[in-house]
Amino acid sequence: MSEIKRVLIWGGWLRASHACIAFSVPVMLVTGWLIADSPSLSDLALDLHYLGAAVLLSGLIARAVLLIAGRDNERFQALVPANKELSAIVATLRCYISFGRMALPAWYAHNPLWKSLYLLIYLALVMLLATGAAMPDVSIVLGFYVPDVHAFWAQVVLWLTVMHVASSILHDYRNQTADVSAMINGYRVFHVDGDRANVPENSLQQTVSIDSIRKKN
Fold this sequence. Notes:
By secondary structure, this protein is mostly helical. It is built from seven helices and five strands; from the N terminus they run βααααββααββα.
């Protein structure tokens, strides 16, 4: 019998951390551009830029704690691709290259392909905060011009953010697992055909039979 399983994947602290990062990144990217290219708005933009940086720092601190003491799928080990996930990584790449025409593989929490990219995003955000904090007092570090380094990592964050949003929408559309709303309410949806092995029983929150849905319609 086919079933739809609604499972709590992301805890409240991780969702709060994600919300802080999701709010602060666009604010910092836009205000950073205004600071550089719109002198008439630079003072206001700078204030908002620092506000975004404070929110971002809060989100990253919370995420760093969860990497050590969070739920199993929120810890650092969950962001390291396993050898057995190689086929899923390749399948995800094929889906992207085909612009969504090929099927996506199934996964429980993190998309295997994006695990390393999430770590790269965190690194890029830390570099943004570090170089941004250094810029008022330091111009050159180890031979690198700090504003140029800051601008480079801002570009990295911009493109990774665009890729992340686009891929999340694609995942939701192709797999119908509620990836987007999961970062609001914490729940993903799994479609299972007579097999409960892919969804841990202790995390199961709600199970609905597809046959029962059809009978009601």
